[in-house]
UniProtKB/TrEMBL annotation:
This is MFS transporter. InterPro entries: MFS, MFS_dom, MFS_trans_sf, MFS_TsgA-like. Its main location: membrane. It is a multi-pass membrane protein. The chain crosses the membrane at residues 7-29, 49-67, 99-120, 161-181, 207-225, 245-266, 273-292, 298-321, 333-351, 363-380. Coiled coil: none annotated. It comes from the Bacteria. The lineage of its organism: Bacteria, Pseudomonadati, Bacteroidota, Flavobacteriia, Flavobacteriales. Keywords: Cell membrane, Membrane, Transmembrane, Transmembrane helix. It is found in: Cell inner membrane. It comes from Flavobacterium qiangtangense.
Length: 392
């Protein structure tokens, strides 16, 4: 009976990770918004910019907020903001409302990423916590994988891709009710949040700076492939936006598979060695993408990239925490802030693509991000990388 009660408390928290995956709809959204309003790449890529910029401004304030209202209420607040964001484009569909909606989704997703893992710690402790977080990340990956298919369902049954927002809004609303009715017995009071100055002064440490920029560029690659992937298929193969969106599903499917295989590999092999091999593989795949002109080749390249970068975030994050264990809380907040790379990189991709006149401009920007990761893989201290292995 006790196990059933614990499962009942854990289940709504784990399904909260499904909502966390909603931010990956930016790839489909930017592609469709570009087509709907006849926008340039620079303008359409403002969709991911409006979302991921929020991670820069709201990660640390969310930690402060949790001290005042608790973890569960912070998650519920993020869900409420998500519901508003999802229904906004349905009330009035134009480019401005899309930007506002995705900015709100960015705020909500930031709050969720900062508060959901600690909330999970309220009901799971010890060694089981890692399994719980892994399960949550798997559910998040499923959400990312499903986005193109949900867009296709919305188009097929409601004659409008925008009703993916209706689906997301209803899911979030129902989960919010479920979570609000679920008691959290051990509402743990978070430690005192640090100021912006306390967190950002960590960047004086060269190792932390190196790894922080690694997070920035890694998320840039992730969001960049998600955003440019459908556009490359449309440009080279004349696919419609819905069919081209399946390229993102291939990317997310293999990223999910790579994450689970990585759990095994990271126990047996050095994280630094895996970091080097997977980064080189990513670079080679991106170079091949310049020359791929058939559907299967492009899909295969997306699969390789997704598989290769699947564990890079956990490697970078663990290395950062192990580099200075006494500052683990501050480092964690700083690394989450680095997710704003998902705003900067797509913006540069849009400008470069418009200048060149093709999506090859986007690939160039993503390739530069991957080259930085390769530099990071060889520049990071071996001792830091080896100590991170124990935490993965």
């Amino acid at each position: 009976m006790k196990n059933k009660d614990q499962i009942a408390r854990i289940a709504p928290i784990l399904f909260g990770f499904f909502i966390m995956g909603f931010c990956d709809v930016v790839g489909i959204a930017s592609t469709n918004v570009k087509a709907d309003f006849g926008l340039s790449d620079t303008m359409s890529n403002m969709i991911p910019v409006s979302l991921f910029t929020m991670f820069l401004f709201f990660s640390i304030p969310t930690g402060i907020l949790m001290n005042h209202i608790g973890r569960k209420k912070t998650v519920l607040l993020s869900n409420a903001i998500t519901v508003i964001a999802m229904f906004l484009p349905l009330v009035e569909y134009n480019f401005a409302t899309c930007l506002v909606a995705f900015a709100l989704l960015g705020i909500a997703n930031t709050m969720l990423q900062v508060s959901l893992n600690p909330l999970l710690n309220n009901v799971i402790s010890g060694e089981k916590l890692f399994s719980g977080i892994t399960a949550g990340q798997f559910i998040k990956a499923i959400s990312s994988f499903c986005a193109p298919f949900l867009a296709a369902v919305a188009t097929r049954h409601f004659s409008n891709w925008q009703h993916i927002f209706t689906i997301y809004g209803i899911i979030t609303f129902l989960l919010t009710i479920w979570m609000s009715l679920t008691p959290i017995e051990r509402e743990i009071k978070p430690e005192k949040a640090n100021s912006f100055h306390d967190v950002f002064r960590l960047l004086k440490d060269k190792t932390i700076l190196l790894l922080f920029l690694g997070i920035v560029f890694l998320v840039g690659i992730d969001v960049g492939v998600n955003t440019a992937g459908p556009k490359i298929l449309m440009e080279r193969l004349n696919l419609d936006s819905i069919s081209a969106g399946y390229g993102a599903s291939v990317f997310f499917a293999f990223r999910t598979a790579g994450a689970f295989i990585g759990i095994i590999l990271l126990v047996k092999f050095s994280p630094k060695l895996i970091f080097k091999i997977t980064t080189v593989t990513t670079i080679l795949a991106l170079i091949a993408l310049f020359f791929a002109n058939d559907k299967m080749s492009i899909f295969a390249i997306y699969a390789v990239i997704g598989f290769s970068i699947a564990n890079t975030f956990s490697i970078l994050f663990s290395m950062a925490l192990k580099s200075n264990p006494d500052k683990a809380n501050e480092i964690s907040g700083l690394m989450i802030t680095g997710i704003f790379g998902g705003a900067v990189v797509p913006f540069l991709m849009g400008i470069t693509s418009d200048k060149i006149g093709s999506q090859n401009g986007s690939i160039i920007v993503i390739l530069i991000c991957a080259i930085y990761l390769l530099f990071c893989a060889f520049a990071i201290k071996t001792s830091v990388a080896e100590s991170a292995q124990k935490s993965i």
